[in-house]
Predict the structure.
Amino acid sequence: MVTLDQIKSLREATGLSVMQVKKALEEADGDPAKALALLKKKSKDVAAKKADRKFNAGAMAAYIHNKGAVGAMVELLCETDFVSGNEGFQKLVYDIALHVAAANPEFNTLADITDAVKESTRELFIKEVEGKPKDLQEKILQGKLDAYFKERVLAEQMFVKNPDITITDLINESIHKFGEKIAVGRFVRFSIK
């Protein structure tokens, strides 16, 4: 039996509708952790279904930190003005701007990394794996490359306000919540230092 307190608690944690939260809790037999996992999986599925939709709206937000020494601006795209004007969407853009200021990503997605950057980074790490066993060198090298780029790609970074999720997870949850395709268009970070 799912209680109102369980529904309220999970709804506050996810921002999803009462019906979505109730259905997930019922599927999980009242277990909030299982329900949250179901909702995260569903968020990915919903995002995949909306991937080929067009962007027609969006919003921008700026975040200034540390007495003006660091700042960031983010453009977040969506499908309609209705969603872009929503308070929750505005908070999402601001949170991503805060994240950009804190985490200093270099690339938006993995697809934005040029072949030249990939190759120069690969050459840098090849020297580090030279002394390792030959049969493990490629696997170690790939692991180092994956870790290096995960720290530098916005979509792959762990969200600074909730290190249990990536920026991609945060956006997928928002796609599930708002029912529209959402993506970071552009971002820029400034630092006095």
Summary: The mean pLDDT is 89. The chain has three domains: 4-49, 57-108+153-191, 114-151. The chain has eight helices and five strands. The helical segments are 4-14, 18-27, 32-49, 81-84, 87-103, 115-129, 134-152, 167-178.
